[in-house]
Amino acid sequence: MSKWQEKQVRPVLPLYLAALVWPVGALVFPPYTLGNLALLAVLSAAAYLLGRRFCPMRVVRTQVPYATGSEDVDAMLTGIAANLDALHALNEAIPDTQLSRAMDRMEKAGRSIVSVVEGAPDKARQIDRFARYYLPEVVKLMSAYVNLEKNGVRGDNADQIVRELRRNAETTATAFENQLDVLYSAEAMDISTDIEVLDSILKSQNLTK
């Protein structure tokens, strides 16, 4: 999900004013003596402070895909989202319904994985191989299949590739869903513990039959 990130930017005009003091001031106070050098330094500092007063820092808003607080996690999620977008586009170009259903499952699980990690950036380490290898490899394989279809390749070799891709796609979709399930395992344990505690409290207060 895109977010707006605010960043304060210091204006450059005060620096330019401070630098301009030296060549202009040198025409009046030649910097050949220590006294003139000190005077020019004071005037330069004064120009800088004056410029800062009349040119306050400004806030620049930029739109970023993710803002988890970690640049590495943001980059990872951006890469995953780009690959999922590519997978979706490839799916639109694939006529095979079995492959398409498997790719729908992959994309759905992948989007959910991104959502979970965006909300809990500390989980990013759990999807490192998914982000760096599994998902990009799926995009690579499906791109090869789309190229076969686009070029009208037929024959035993092409049929074998399609069969292997179908089998691999189903397995990969299940693996993506399992990856998502692993991310929820800690929450599931916490919820189970909370339920047990609540049940125990209710029983101790004779509020259950």
What does this structure look like?
- By secondary structure, the protein is mainly alpha-helical.
- It has 2 domains: 3-63, no CATH class; 71-195, no CATH class.
- 73% of the residues lie in helices and 7% in strands.
- The protein contains 7 helices and 2 strands; from the N terminus they run βααβααααα.
- The protein has helices at 13-28, 34-54, 71-92, 97-119, 128-150, 156-183, 185-204; strands at 3-9, 58-64.
- The protein has a two-stranded antiparallel ribbon with strand order 1-2.
- Helix 1 runs antiparallel to helix 2.
- The model has no long low-confidence stretch (mean pLDDT 83).
Q: What would the keywords be for this entry?
A:
2 domains; two-stranded antiparallel ribbon; 73% helix; 209 residues; mainly alpha
Tell me the radius of gyration.
30 Å
Strand percentage lies at 5-15%
Average the pLDDT over all residues and give the rounded result: 83
Query: Which percent range fits the helix content?
Result: over 70%
Q: Can you tell me the number of structural domains? A: 2
Low-confidence stretches: none
Spatial arrangement of strands, main beta sheet: 1-2
Shape estimate = elongated
**Beta-strand segment tally:** 2
Broad structural category: mainly alpha
The biggest sheet amounts to: 2 strands, antiparallel
First CA to last CA: what distance? 46 Å
Order of helices and strands: EHHEHHHHH
- How many helices? 7
